[in-house]
Every structure is written in structure tokens, then in C-alpha cells.
What does this fold into?
Amino acid sequence: MEKQDFKKFVLCLMKASEKIDANYFKLPVSEGESTYRERVYCYELYHQLRCTLGDSFPYKLNGEVDKIDHPIIKKAKKPDFIFHIPGSMKQNFVVIEVKPITVKDEINELKKDIQKLKYFLNKIRYYRAIIIVYGNLNDITLPQNIKMEIESISDKRIMVLWHREPHETPEIIRG
It folds into this structure.
């Protein structure tokens, strides 16, 4: 059942990503160059994903749920998205982290997010994890240091998507 639900979720995630407009992908700045802003992208992805999934899917999408006061999860971990059944620790489904392509300049942020996803997979028993890298620096491939971090992930439960441009389907870099 989880495998089928995950396939359906990924299809919905792809459709939702395709609906993200350029203004949410790269924020226009008054009298300056547009810039990648992770929160802006995440809020729009959340909106599009909720619209695409509807209310009939058994799991619920939550954004940046603070786990500081959680009675079981003692560490302060705050993933960008969790897809789960609230109130139950037995049906944790997907945890997602999002990073703009400019994370190449702060590769430690990507490393921290990978560790956070591993924590949710191993300690909190989420079924799968997804990293979404969004944006493009006029390259056909990911920047080398991002690529190296992704290649170093040994856990096959972590999927990596690259969402290059607004209104495009993300590419599955690692499945």
C-alpha cells in the first residue's frame, strides 16, 4: 500500500511543481535581480500540492511542523514538509526538504538537510524522504558540489528531484 501511495504522491508532486509560476520560483526584486527564496517557493508548492492532492488522500500535508515540544521526538527538527497522519507515529509517510540551486554556495545547508532526512527515516520511521533542488544556473547539470553531495547519499529511501524551471516537470536525479 505504501509503495502505491508513494507513486501516487510523486505524480501529484510532479503535477503540483509544474504549476509553480516564475514569480514564486524566483522572486522579483524592486530595482534588482530576481532571487531564489526558499520560503516563497515552498509556500507555493504547498498550495499547489494541496490543490492537486485534494482531501481524499489518506495522509495530510503539513509545512514546517515544529517538533520541539513533541513527546516522542526530543530533537528540534523542522523539515520543510511532512506528509503523515497527524496524531499517529505509525503512519509517517514522506518528509521533504527543499533547497534552491544557490545552496551550492552553502553546501553545509544541504548536508544538514540530508542528515535531517536520515533522522526522520531512521528514528521517526518515515517511509520515504525527498530532497527538491530548484532553480538553474544556466547549466545542463547540477553544480558539481551539489551533485557530489547527492551521489554520497547511500540511503535508497531518499529521492532527489531537480526542478529546473517554472512550469516544468522536475527531473528525478535519484530515485
Remarks:
- The mean pLDDT is 89.
- The chain has one domain: 2-174.
- DSSP finds five helices and six strands in the chain.
